[in-house]
Amino acid sequence: MHKCKWCENLVEKVSEKEKLCDYCRFEIFNLAKSRLRVISESYNIIKESSNLETIISRRKIMIDYLNEFIKYEQKGIEVYSISINDAINSTNFESNKRILELLTLKFEKSIQKINKSKTIKSKQNNASKFVKEAMIIKDNYFSFAENFDLCTQTAEELIKIVLSSN
Length: 166
Description:
By secondary structure, this protein is an all-alpha fold. Helices cover 74% and strands 2% of the residues.
Protein backbone atom coordinates (compact mmCIF):
# COMPACT_ATOMS: atom_id res chain seq x y z
CA MET A 1 0.00 0.00 0.00
CA HIS A 2 1.09 3.54 -0.80
CA LYS A 3 0.11 6.88 0.64
CA CYS A 4 -1.17 9.56 -1.74
CA LYS A 5 0.83 12.76 -1.34
CA TRP A 6 -2.31 14.93 -1.58
CA CYS A 7 -5.27 13.16 0.06
CA GLU A 8 -3.00 10.98 2.24
CA ASN A 9 -5.22 7.94 1.68
CA LEU A 10 -3.63 4.54 1.46
CA VAL A 11 -4.05 3.14 -2.04
CA GLU A 12 -2.69 0.22 -4.02
CA LYS A 13 -0.73 2.41 -6.38
CA VAL A 14 0.35 6.02 -6.79
CA SER A 15 1.83 7.79 -9.79
CA GLU A 16 5.57 7.35 -9.98
CA LYS A 17 6.55 11.00 -10.34
CA GLU A 18 3.95 12.85 -8.23
CA LYS A 19 3.10 10.06 -5.76
CA LEU A 20 -0.62 10.77 -6.22
CA CYS A 21 -3.54 8.36 -6.31
CA ASP A 22 -5.39 8.19 -9.63
CA TYR A 23 -8.26 10.34 -8.36
CA CYS A 24 -6.08 13.15 -7.02
CA ARG A 25 -3.81 13.09 -10.06
CA PHE A 26 -6.84 13.36 -12.36
CA GLU A 27 -8.44 16.19 -10.35
CA ILE A 28 -5.27 18.25 -9.85
CA PHE A 29 -4.01 18.00 -13.40
CA ASN A 30 -7.43 18.61 -14.98
CA LEU A 31 -7.76 21.74 -12.86
CA ALA A 32 -4.21 22.75 -13.81
CA LYS A 33 -4.98 22.20 -17.50
CA SER A 34 -8.13 24.35 -17.44
CA ARG A 35 -6.41 27.06 -15.40
CA LEU A 36 -3.43 27.04 -17.73
CA ARG A 37 -5.73 27.72 -20.68
CA VAL A 38 -7.17 30.81 -18.92
CA ILE A 39 -3.69 31.90 -17.77
CA SER A 40 -2.41 31.60 -21.33
CA GLU A 41 -5.37 33.54 -22.76
CA SER A 42 -4.92 36.22 -20.10
CA TYR A 43 -1.21 36.48 -20.87
CA ASN A 44 -1.96 37.07 -24.56
CA ILE A 45 -4.61 39.66 -23.71
CA ILE A 46 -2.16 41.51 -21.46
CA LYS A 47 0.43 41.63 -24.25
CA GLU A 48 -2.09 43.00 -26.77
CA SER A 49 -4.46 45.17 -24.74
CA SER A 50 -4.32 48.94 -24.65
CA ASN A 51 -6.74 49.12 -21.74
CA LEU A 52 -5.17 49.40 -18.28
CA GLU A 53 -8.23 47.98 -16.53
CA THR A 54 -8.17 44.92 -18.79
CA ILE A 55 -4.48 44.38 -18.09
CA ILE A 56 -5.00 44.68 -14.35
CA SER A 57 -8.05 42.41 -14.26
CA ARG A 58 -6.27 39.74 -16.33
CA ARG A 59 -3.19 39.97 -14.12
CA LYS A 60 -5.43 39.44 -11.09
CA ILE A 61 -7.06 36.40 -12.68
CA MET A 62 -3.66 34.92 -13.50
CA ILE A 63 -2.29 35.49 -10.01
CA ASP A 64 -5.46 34.17 -8.34
CA TYR A 65 -5.32 31.02 -10.45
CA LEU A 66 -1.61 30.54 -9.85
CA ASN A 67 -2.08 31.01 -6.10
CA GLU A 68 -4.50 28.05 -6.13
CA PHE A 69 -1.52 25.79 -6.87
CA ILE A 70 0.78 26.94 -4.08
CA LYS A 71 -0.85 24.39 -1.76
CA TYR A 72 0.19 21.59 -4.12
CA GLU A 73 3.70 22.91 -4.50
CA GLN A 74 4.02 23.08 -0.71
CA LYS A 75 3.35 19.34 -0.59
CA GLY A 76 5.99 18.74 -3.26
CA ILE A 77 3.57 18.27 -6.15
CA GLU A 78 4.94 19.94 -9.28
CA VAL A 79 1.93 21.11 -11.25
CA TYR A 80 3.67 23.37 -13.76
CA SER A 81 7.20 23.28 -15.12
CA ILE A 82 8.18 26.47 -13.22
CA SER A 83 7.55 27.36 -9.61
CA ILE A 84 4.35 29.20 -8.81
CA ASN A 85 6.27 32.13 -7.31
CA ASP A 86 8.35 32.43 -10.49
CA ALA A 87 5.15 32.36 -12.55
CA ILE A 88 3.60 35.10 -10.37
CA ASN A 89 6.74 37.23 -10.65
CA SER A 90 6.75 36.74 -14.42
CA THR A 91 3.07 37.72 -14.58
CA ASN A 92 3.73 40.91 -12.65
CA PHE A 93 6.79 41.70 -14.76
CA GLU A 94 4.98 41.21 -18.09
CA SER A 95 1.89 43.20 -17.07
CA ASN A 96 4.04 46.01 -15.68
CA LYS A 97 6.08 46.00 -18.87
CA ARG A 98 2.89 46.44 -20.90
CA ILE A 99 1.71 49.25 -18.63
CA LEU A 100 5.07 50.97 -19.15
CA GLU A 101 4.65 50.61 -22.91
CA LEU A 102 1.25 52.28 -22.67
CA LEU A 103 2.67 54.99 -20.43
CA THR A 104 5.45 55.59 -22.97
CA LEU A 105 2.85 55.99 -25.73
CA LYS A 106 0.96 58.47 -23.54
CA PHE A 107 4.25 60.27 -22.92
CA GLU A 108 4.97 60.53 -26.65
CA LYS A 109 1.44 61.82 -27.36
CA SER A 110 1.80 64.33 -24.54
CA ILE A 111 5.10 65.59 -25.99
CA GLN A 112 3.42 66.06 -29.39
CA LYS A 113 0.52 67.90 -27.77
CA ILE A 114 2.89 70.08 -25.77
CA ASN A 115 4.95 70.89 -28.85
CA LYS A 116 1.80 71.91 -30.72
CA SER A 117 0.66 74.12 -27.84
CA LYS A 118 0.89 77.81 -28.61
CA THR A 119 1.27 79.26 -25.11
CA ILE A 120 3.45 78.47 -22.12
CA LYS A 121 0.31 78.08 -20.01
CA SER A 122 -1.16 75.42 -22.32
CA LYS A 123 2.22 73.63 -22.42
CA GLN A 124 2.30 73.59 -18.62
CA ASN A 125 -1.33 72.42 -18.42
CA ASN A 126 -0.68 69.53 -20.83
CA ALA A 127 2.47 68.55 -18.95
CA SER A 128 0.65 68.72 -15.63
CA LYS A 129 -2.17 66.55 -16.99
CA PHE A 130 0.30 63.89 -18.10
CA VAL A 131 2.17 63.96 -14.77
CA LYS A 132 -1.12 63.48 -12.89
CA GLU A 133 -2.08 60.53 -15.13
CA ALA A 134 1.40 59.02 -14.75
CA MET A 135 1.20 59.26 -10.96
CA ILE A 136 -2.25 57.63 -10.92
CA ILE A 137 -0.82 54.79 -13.00
CA LYS A 138 2.19 54.59 -10.69
CA ASP A 139 0.06 54.51 -7.55
CA ASN A 140 -2.59 52.10 -8.79
CA TYR A 141 -1.09 49.69 -11.28
CA PHE A 142 2.53 48.88 -10.64
CA SER A 143 3.64 46.14 -8.29
CA PHE A 144 7.43 46.27 -8.70
CA ALA A 145 9.48 49.09 -7.16
CA GLU A 146 11.73 49.58 -10.21
CA ASN A 147 8.67 50.43 -12.29
CA PHE A 148 7.71 53.15 -9.81
CA ASP A 149 11.08 54.72 -10.52
CA LEU A 150 10.65 54.43 -14.30
CA CYS A 151 7.23 56.04 -14.12
CA THR A 152 8.52 58.90 -11.97
CA GLN A 153 11.56 59.33 -14.23
CA THR A 154 9.30 59.54 -17.32
CA ALA A 155 7.14 62.19 -15.66
CA GLU A 156 10.24 64.15 -14.59
CA GLU A 157 11.60 64.04 -18.15
CA LEU A 158 8.36 65.53 -19.42
CA ILE A 159 8.51 68.32 -16.85
CA LYS A 160 12.11 69.14 -17.89
CA ILE A 161 11.10 69.28 -21.55
CA VAL A 162 8.25 71.67 -20.76
CA LEU A 163 10.41 73.86 -18.55
CA SER A 164 13.20 74.00 -21.12
CA SER A 165 10.75 75.18 -23.79
CA ASN A 166 9.86 78.30 -21.75
